[in-house]
Each structure stands twice: as C-alpha cells, then as structure tokens.
Amino acid sequence: MAEKSYEEEHPAKAFGWAARDQSGVLSPFKFSRRSPGEKDVRLKVLFCGICHTDLHMAKNEWGISTYPLVPGHEIVGQVTGVGSKVEKFRVGDKVGVAGMIGSCRSCDSCSNNLENYCSEVIITYGAKDQDGTITYGGYSDIMVVDEHFVVHIPDNLSLDAAAPLLCAGITVYSPLRFYGLDKPGMHVGVVGLGGLGHVGVKFAKAMGVKVTVISTSPNKKQEALEHLGADSFLVSRDQDQMQAAMGTMDGVIDTVSAMHPILPLISLLKTQGKLVLVGAPEKPLELPVFPLLMGRKIVGGSCIGGMKETQEMIDFAAKNNITADIEVISMDYVNTAMERLLKTDVRYRFVIDIGNTMKS
C-alpha cells in the first residue's frame, strides 16, 4: 500500500494540558489536530511562553472562553512536515507561531499586512478554525498551521528566550513603530516592568530611544536601570517625581493589565504626545478628555501585529540580540506558575519546556 501523502494524513493525535472550567486549573488532555492541508506546516512544539492572556482565558475573565481550552500563543518549535504547496519552510526549520493562525486574507486589513485586525481573524486557541474544529494552543506537543501564520526563528536566537517575543515582543514593537516612537533621541515611557514592559525597554533602547520606566514598585529601579538599561525610573505613586516629569515624554507605552489611572500618564506627555495602551484591564479605564484637548494628545491602542511585522520584529531582535528574561518550567508546574503569575511573581516570563517535559 502506498504511503499516505502529508495532506492525506488523518488528524494528528495530540497531547496537551487544558483548562476544563472557569477554575482555570489545567490538566492533561488528549485531542486531535485538524488534517493538514497543502499549505500547512506541522511542527513539534519545543517551548511555549505563558502570557497573562492565558490566565484571563483559562478563567474566562473576558467571557469568551470555550472549554476544554488549551492555552499558549508564544510557540516555538521545529518543522516536522510540510504540505505540497508550502514554499517558505522545510522540515527541520526553527519556527514560531504567535497569537493567530488564520484570517480572511482578502479584507483591507489583510491586504495591508494587518491580519491581526481582520474581523475574521482566527486566534491560536479557543476559536473555530476554517474547517469548524476548535483551535488549541501551544501547551501541547504538536501544531498544524497555515504557513502564512508561521515565522522563521533565526539561528542566533535561543528558542526558549525567543518564545515570549511572539506575543510580548510584537505587542510592544508594533506600537513603537506605528506611532512613530522609534526615532533616536525621542523620550518614551514604559509603564509596568513585567513580561511586556521589560522587552519594551529592550526594543526601545535598541531603536535609540531614551526610556523611562514607570512603575508602582520602587524596588524595581535598580533592575530597570542597571540590568535593562533604562535611562530613568519613575515611581508612579510618588507625586513629586511625576510632577517633575510632566510634559517630558514623546510617548508612553502602557503595558498594565490591571485597573489604574491614566490621567497621570497623559500628564507626562509633551504637546502632541501619544499614550498607547497595550494591556487589557478587565474593566473600562476612565478617560479624562480635557487634558487631551489641551495639548492635542492622543490615546491609542495596539494589539500584537501582522505577520510581516512579526517576522520583522523577530529579525530585529536577532540583529540586536534581544530576548526575554525567562524562567523555564516543566509542564507539570504550569498551575503553580499561573498562581505566581497572578501575583506577578516572575522575572519576567515563564516559558514551558514542552519538548522535554510534556509526558503523555
């Protein structure tokens, strides 16, 4: 009997860890990936970062989760199979999968390399795929993804420390580029020194930007200045410090996902400055309008990036030796890691060693 082609293979048996209800507790889960198509890449997952979104989704804090839910969208691995019409990848390539695995490919957003803003975007987990199956994320041993939504990982990037760039990295890189906050000599504030904030500092510094870290935690000052290379540090609860810094920044990237006042951040901006929100608090923030009028200031948002920009970000990271600061964990430690993440007890990103510790 002739050996089946890659596209003729039945759905691949997969193994991962899934949340079954709003408790958010993850446990082992066996499932099937969709049958691979002619443009699909199959990869063995080696590492997967833990994003705060995974915690929100596991607990259904945004009200959009479906169970069982296999989280994970900071995925790196190695190609183990390619469809007959795949052009960009070969077996053995080191690759990454980020926050989306599909889109309509024909709307204005898709036509402008902004698939992340497509109204029919298919997120990496907890969504309906094109064939009607449910998407499952990277807390699993294998993935099947259309090649358009896969990126090359350059050889000089360590796979574990590169994984968080696929969400945290692109989430801060994209607004720096789009809002024009990437020009040498500009002054940008980064609010929150967590998974997003610490790579935001690294990218901005590599772009030649003066960076001020803005944090509620005074004990992070030495870390921000000496380890991450920030130029200055502001304690957001210190009114004297905040007052002294008023009107000094071209832009502020706000990475905080908890409820917090944004008026003090708007006050830091120069005339025509830009406050960009990339965190996702569970409840609406209060937006004072008058301070925006008196200075033609902008409050904007940004959500990951398109595939072209995601590859650009990875290549920029490789060129400038940018990776995330990580704590590598085993798969069976994931629930403890989630509890620690809730307490911000991580410096700065958990990464699961899927390849060596996922036991079926």
From TrEMBL:
The keyword NADP does not apply. It catalyses: D-mannitol + NAD(+) = D-mannose + NADH + H(+). Residues 24-352 form the Enoyl reductase (ER) domain. InterPro entries: ADH-like_C (IPR013149), ADH-like_N (IPR013154), ADH_Zn_CS (IPR002328), CAD-like (IPR047109), ER (IPR020843), GroES-like_sf (IPR011032), NAD(P)-bd_dom_sf (IPR036291). Its EC number is 1.1.1.255. Its cofactor is Zn(2+). It holds the Pfam family ADH_zinc_N. Keywords: Metal-binding, NAD, Oxidoreductase, Zinc. It is an enzyme of class 1 (oxidoreductase). Oxidizes mannitol to mannose. Provides the initial step by which translocated mannitol is committed to central metabolism and, by regulating mannitol pool size, is important in regulating salt tolerance at the cellular level. This is mannitol dehydrogenase. It comes from Populus deltoides (Eastern poplar).
